[in-house]
Design goal:
Layout: H1 3-33, H2 38-74, H3 83-106
Helix pairs in contact: 1-3, 2-3
Length: about 110
Amino acid sequence: MNADLIDEFAVLWFQAPLVMSSRMQDFAWAGVLGGSNEMGRMVTEKVAAAFESVSDVNVALVKESIATAAAFATGTFAGMPGASDRVAVAALIPYGKRVRANVRRLTR
C-alpha cells in the first residue's frame, strides 16, 4: 500500500468523525434557533464528490491502461505494481479534500 493511499484513508478515518460530530451540533442548534443550510451543503458536497471521484477514477484507469499497454509492448513491466493503489487514491482524493475543508470550516 503506498503512502498516498494511507494518507487518504487516515483523513477519512480520523477527520470524518470530527466533521460528523460538528454537523450534528450544528443540526441541534438549528433545531433550537432555527435555520441551517448545513444539510443542503452536506448533500451537495457528497454528490459533487461522487461525480468528481467517478471522473478521477476513469482518468486513472485510462492512464493505467495506457501504461500497461506500453509495458506489454516494450516488455518492461516496471510501474505496474501499485496500479490498483493509484486508482484507489484517485477515488478517495475528492472525498478527502472535502473532509479537510470541512474540518477547517467547522472547527473555527
